[in-house]
Amino acid sequence: MVVNELPKVGLGTWLLTDREELSEAIRAAWETGYRHFDTAQLYNNEYDIGQILQEQKIERGEFFLTTKIAPPNYKKHVKESVKQSLKRLQTDYLDLVLLHAELSEELNLKAYQDLLDLQKDGVIKHVGVSNFSIEGLKKLEASTGVKPYCNQIVCSPTTRPVELETYCLDEGILLTGYSILKPYFTPNPFYPDSELSNDEKSKLDQLCDSYHVSIGQLLNKWALQHDYHVIPKSSKPERVKENYQLEFEISPEDMDTIDQMNRFSAAEYRKSVKKMEDSVTEEALEKGLLYEAHYERDAR
Description:
Substrate binds at residue 100. The protein is α/β, with parallel strands linked by helices and 300 residues long. It has helices at residues 19-32, 46-55, 78-89, 105-120, 134-144, 162-170, 182-185, 198-211, 215-225, 237-244, 252-259, 266-279, 282-287; strands spanning 11-12, 36-38, 64-69, 94-99, 124-130, 150-154, 174-178, 228-230. Helix content is 46%, strand content 12%. The termini are far apart. The model has no long low-confidence stretch (mean pLDDT 94).
């Protein structure tokens, strides 16, 4: 079956740079039913993913492949970096390419237009963004007349940007949530106040017991019921399989229990976006992040 639209559940690969672990995760994901693999130029694993997918002998049309443009490539290197991603991933096209983060209005528009050009050329099927604010989304559409297909954003019980979420869903922009489980174990490094309290964890544990599911299953299902797509990540095959088993329904009352843990806002999200904007230097924008297979960590 050819996969043309973004599946509801995919395999996230951030921090999966050990080739053996990545191979086991992808194999387990494919066998379980995953048809979406999410990566990024900054993840430094496109080359390995390309090799692993070839080794698995999976027909290209049977899975949906997402990557993201590294912010240093926005100014001058979007099209060249996509060519390199295609080569690393051993594919003729990408199902979805996202701008990895919101930078300045000028840089966002330049990079977005380059992706739209590649879409016209048939190299990219869908063009989207990641970590974009409401303001950033509006400016892209106002300048190009084209809404992003998807906005990939942080989403967890404590870091759910409801205003941004509502805007995207109202505008027909798909949402993909990431770091859904993060605050259960440790604070999200970008949001120090995101860690769940012991009382909140206890409530979640009680819900897991009630539904006979793991914390991963509970929170991924919670996000799905808020109309997110999800990309759970794990290097453990058994956990990869478990994260896909979501054939249960969380009651409205229990959804509300989880929702009440949120302490996030669109304004706070915009502050985090600004941090990324300020971190990309003019020197990095001139140089870009271009590489054949892997790059040295200090190249970021």
